[in-house]
Amino acid sequence: MNSSTKILIGAGLTALLAWGSHSVFDKGAAFVDGLEAQAKETLAAQSVEGVTVASERDPALKRVIILSGDKSDEEKAKIIAAVKAIPGVADARWDDGSTGAAAPAAAAEAPATKEQVAECQGDINTLMTGKTINFQSGSAYLAADSNAIIDELAKALGPCAGTKVEVQGHTDLTGNPEINQTLSQARAEAVAKALTDKGVPADRLTAKGYGSTQPVENAMTAAANAKNRRTVFSVAAAGAAPEGGQ
Fold first, then answer.
1. What is the CATH number of domain 3-94?
2. In the chain, where do the E strands start and end?
3. Which residues of the chain have pLDDT under 50?
4. How many other C-beta atoms lie within 10 A of the C-beta of residue 69?
5. What are the φ and ψ backbone dihedral angles of 186, each rounded to 5 degrees?
6. Where are the domains of the chain?
7. What pLDDT was estimated at residue 7?
8. Superfamily of domain 114-237
């Protein structure tokens, strides 16, 4: 191989690596752009005016929405709560660091017994057997065919007083690990939000994305991908760490 050929090959590899890096960044930027747009739409739907929406992007892309505008503490608290409820948003705050008036604390439920936790976990596992919560491709938007499952889950979780349910998002092994992590977190938050909209107490749910770090099957076949893309519900007594679910 002569020197000219080596130079051409080296240049081609450099260009390919650069393209891959920009591709990952562009996907992340597009995701953050989408969160900003959703925040603006949410505030417009609630007739909120005079509030500017931005997001943290420097030194790295984040899922944190920054708000600004002249609002009372009570208004700030309501606006922040509305934006934080958007699937995929990790946090929201005012540009001056304020968070508005604090909401009154709800009375804590007495922790469930081991038997109650096991019963709740068993009901959810039985309900989810053979079922999958689906999303629109590459997004955290629930697919229409998942609405019936959400309804059933909300009913099953209704009697689970004194528990803490971790809604876990998992992706398959394909794609960029960082993007998979972000997507799995957004999907877990979307499911938790859908359940609270159906009446499940928000303080009973937590959302955590695990990306591609906990595959059911360590392979990238179509069958393995389908198994690895999943939402898991792990039940524990309030105040205890989740142990795992189906």
1. 3.30.1340.30
2. 52-55, 64-68, 91-94, 163-170, 205-209, 230-237
3. 4-22, 24-25
4. 16
5. -60, -40
6. 3-94, 114-237
7. 45
8. OmpA-like domain (3.30.1330.60)
